[in-house]
Amino acid sequence: MAHPDDVDFGAAGTVAGWTDRGIDVVYLMVTDGDAGGFDDTITRAEMAALRREEQRAAAKCVGVDDIRWLGYPDGRVEATLGLRRDIARVIRQVRPDRLLMPSPDRNYERIYPSHPDHRAVGAAALDAVYPDARNPYAFPELLAEEGLEAWTTREVWATGGPVVNHYVDVTERFDRKLHALRSHASQTAHMGDGLVEMLRGWMSGNAAAAGLPEGRLAEPFQVIDTA
């Protein structure tokens, strides 16, 4: 993901379901979120440190304790060869079957998920899945200097994009998603009860689109076969 809190807005309920079933989940944050928040009294370096701590607390709410950071500057991420290599490195280290990422495509129906950093990270991550991480001759230094063997990730789950082909019912895990998001106090405290209203409105709409009964809550994804 591009920033701390991205995974929690898009998929915390789904991640909680995975960890409940014993699936190991690793987070990779491309930036520290140093351009976020609303407090002019702290430095950007202090904000970055705060947001790292908030993400660690949020991750615990959904059963994740392995978080990795790339330290790219918030608001200035581009889908460069360097970013592709850095993501491919972590893919080869972790060797995941599934990769969750922001959609590289702009969503004109809901503009907020289409932050430039999100789209850049999505584009670089998809390129890292195919072809970079699976091709031993792409970024050969990863093998020659770091001993990281090529790895094929079987599927990608994209969040926030204009195409949705899969919904996950997270009704029973809504409270954990909410607690995770409230852990990002620098980003969400100002919303008060509006956070609950926003989440329930959006997630109820997802559930209706998925054909789920009234009162259910869902998270949407575009699932892509990359085997």
UniProtKB/TrEMBL annotation:
**Assigned keywords, A-Z:** Zinc
Q: Which domain of life is it from?
A: Bacteria
A Gene Ontology biological process noted in the UniProt record is:
glycoside metabolic process
Q: Which Pfam families match?
A: PIG-L (PF02585)
What this protein is called in its record is PIG-L family deacetylase
User: Which GO terms label this protein's molecular function in UniProt?
Assistant: hydrolase activity, acting on carbon-nitrogen (but not peptide) bonds, in linear amides
